[in-house]
Amino acid sequence: MTNFPNYLTFDNVDLAYSNFLKTLMSIVDSLAPFKEKRIKGRTQEWFDGEISELIAIRNQQYKRFKKTLLHVDKEIFKETKYKIIKLIKSKKKIYFENKLKENIGKPKELWKALKSLGLPSKNASSSNICLKDKNGNMNFENSTNADTFKNFFENLANDLLLKLPKAPNIFTLARTFSYYKTLGISDKKFELSHISEEKMRKYLSNLSPNKASGIDNLSARFLKDGANVLALPISQLCNLSIDLSTFPQDCKVAKLSPQYKKGSRTEAKNFRPISLLPILSKLIEKTIHDQVQNHCTEHNIFFAFQSGFRGKHSTDTCLTYLHDKILKGFDEGLLTGMIAIDLQKAFDTIDHEILLSKMPLFGFSSNTIQWFRSYLSNRTFHVSLSSYMSSAGKLVCGVPQGSILGPLLFLLYINDMPQAVDSDLFLYADDSGLAFQHKNINEINQKLNKDFHNLCLWFVDNKLSIHFGEDKTKCILFGSKRKIKNAGKLEISFNNIEIKQYSSLTYLGCILDDTMSGEAMATKTIKKINSKLKFLHRKNDFLTPDLRRLLCNALIQPHFDYVCSSWFPNLTQKLKQKLQITQNKCIRFCLQLPSRTRLSFQHHKKINWLPIKERVEQSILSHVFKSLNDSSPVYMKDLFKTAPQSHISTRQANFRLIQPLRKTNMGLNTISYLGPSLWNKLPENIKQSSSLNIFKHKVKEHFLEILQK
After folding, report:
1. Could you tell me if 406 and 400 are in contact, meaning their C-beta atoms sit under 8 angstroms apart?
2. Residue 336: beta bridge partners?
3. Half-sphere exposure of 476 (CA within 13 A, CB side)
């Protein structure tokens, strides 16, 4: 085995990285040399020699029939043809059955198998792309199209920046410093530190062997398999990078693959760039990411209502809290005005100098800031189409797509956004929601217009662009039917651009209607489930009982579960019944029961599924459990208050919640009311579960026992 030098003795990180990569690739080439193999594109994996032989016989029989035109030869040909059809069906069934069984615990491979079976996919193949040139002519050449994509992606951010108005310079660095000083953040100090060989070994061992390689073609499998040998030299490379405050130049080159989004397939703007960076680049980034993330979490640097790219946070927690706040407003007779703000290419238009200038405010040392300056500068990319690679394009702004540090840097960049507003601000990465509650529509209009105006100025100062066109940025007024009818309309605008008011809008994948009835979300859920169930029915011949249940859990249950604790309680009984009927269809499919079979407790027990109502209650209780066990965002903890010890015994104090006062049905359907109501009825042994999975299991058993009685 080749010995790697001690890279900490090098004084140039690029030379050290180049030496490591050259040495490693020579070892890889000797052990597993790269070979090209021609594969027939149309050959299916289930297509074998037996089918091929039978097809050859069929073709000979067909030639004989065409020559003789005898009825007997025609019948022989038809018999063989039907035999082939039957054999292909049998082979396909066996192949897919085995493929699905093999990948029960491998979600990525399971989805591949399902797509090969015909499961609809939004991500169509981009291998055969044809784009229009400047003259409107169609071009099928991969070389030309790759360069067209390169030019488009390279100029995209710059084109947006040129459209921005002149910066008002209101939200200056000094003002941002004052904002952070009031939060007690600016005096926290942070310096990058070395990573140990043991920790790097852990990173390497956790690598997915199927992770796509970057432009250097170094496979993650070799790094994972060689973790014990490679942990030391790679940790030395990372530590050298930290010591010299320099990121290796070869790690800054990305390979972009265009992926179709929507609209015309002949325009580059309708494709998104999927960025692939070298695996070694991501290992160095992971080292830095974990340290910065720990610093920001430990010192509460992140905005409390930022739910994107953070542990314990999710779209579910963000939407659950938002639903609760709006419904509590209903209960108090308040209207809620909200603006859902859409940013254009937010990650791609981050200004590097602005980002670097904000880093001292988080306590980053000069050496740490210099490392990030090196990381962001001189980045390039190549567009890959089939076997062709475009010329190099430059990335002069934005955080690197497909990187580990990119999302974290974006959160730090927009972290001071709340200084621009007094209204409630809800963030999930670049998805922003601005909300204000009051009984008077005029007060809401005044407040939201003021804060939206300030927010737009903050965006301009930070070189970010709001998407005003195509109904991207919208507003909505929440309230009871009577209040909305008498209130008038929201009148929100900026620079004479009016923000259109809608009776419903989609925020983070959940449909919010102005009366919070949940009807649109329930209808969407039922439609999606029925579509997936039809697909599974068509492929029923390939599925065993275990696979049917597995696929229903993978394809269908997530639609039932998504933010269900928020939108389900407000549904009418008719819609709740429709959802239960939809679940019943799934149970009959899994258990292969006739369509008219009346379901009982035994059927739910057999498939180990709770009915919809109890499943939603389990979800609500899970939110409570996570909140009480420090596994949810700080804002979720505000929804559930433990009873004072003076009211009950000390032993039970941590396991009983205060039941808040609510006056209306909408108030009774808030999670802050339903949570304590359900929690306080649970047996103590369930409340004291040691983990969330154990808690969910015990709650399910508890509900099934109640149903049985």
Report:
1. yes
2. 437, 478
3. 22
Q: What Cα–Cα distance (Å) separates residue 305 from each residue in 317, 418, 437?
A: 10, 10, 17
Confidence band (pLDDT; 50, 70, 90) for 135?
Answer: confident
Asked whether residue 21 carries a pLDDT value surpassing 50, the answer given is: yes
Specify whether the CB–CB gap between 355 and 412 falls below 8 A: yes
pLDDT digits (tens, 9 = 90+) for 610-655: 999 999 999 999 999 999 999 999 999 999 998 886 544 444 445 7
| Structure-token pair, residue 30 | 């000797």
Six-digit token pair at 622?
């899970």
Collapse the DSSP code of 501 into the 3-class scheme (helix H, G, I; strand E, B; otherwise coil) and give the result.
strand
Say if residues 365 and 386 touch (Cβ distance below 8 Å): no
Contact 382, 215 (CB under 8 A): yes
Position 545 scores a pLDDT of 84
Q: Which residues contact 203 (CB under 8 A, 6 or more apart)?
A: 283, 286, 287
CA distance 405 to 251: 13
Q: What's this model's pTM, rounded to 2 decimal places?
A: 0.90
List beta partners, residue 190. 364
Q: How far apart are CA 471 and CA 527, in angstroms?
A: 24
Nearest to 4 by CA among 202, 234, 220, 223: 234
Q: Which residues contact 555 (CB under 8 A, 6 or more apart)?
A: 114, 119, 532, 535, 536
End-to-end CA distance of the chain: 68
CB-facing half-sphere around the CA of 484: CA atoms within 13 A: 17
Q: Residues 6 or more apart from 169 whose CB is under 8 A from it?
A: 461
649-680 pLDDT per residue, tens: 444 445 789 999 999 999 999 999 999 999 99
- Which residue in this structure is represented by tokens 């309230």? 479
Q: What whole-number distance in Å separates Cα of residue 401 and Cα of residue 383? A: 13
Query: Which residue, among 163, 232, 244, has the nearest Cα to 199 in the 3D structure?
Result: 232
Cα–Cα dist 227/229, whole Å: 6
How many Cβ atoms are within 10 Å of 401's Cβ, its own excluded? Answer: 19
Residue type, 490: L
Residue 390 in contact with residue 154, Cβ under 8 Å? Answer: no
pLDDT exceeds cutoff 60 at 1: no
Are 636 and 626 within 8 A, CB to CB?
Answer: yes
Give the model confidence (pLDDT) of 683-706 as tens digits: 999 999 999 999 999 999 999 999
Structural contact between residues 21 and 280, judged by C-beta atoms closer than 8 angstroms: yes
Record the tokens describing residue 184, joined without a space: 């007690």
Alpha-carbon Rg of the chain, whole angstroms?
30
Strands 335-341 and 431-438: antiparallel
Q: Is 300 helix (H, G, I), strand (E, B) or coil?
A: coil
pLDDT of amino acid 310: 95
Q: Render the burial of 581-598: b for 16+ CB within 10 Å, e for the rest.
A: ebbbbbbbbbeeeeeeee
Query: DSSP strand E in 79-230: where?
Result: 131-132, 138-139
Cα 345 from Cα 553, distance rounded (Å): 34
Find the helix or strand (DSSP H, E) in which 246 lies: none
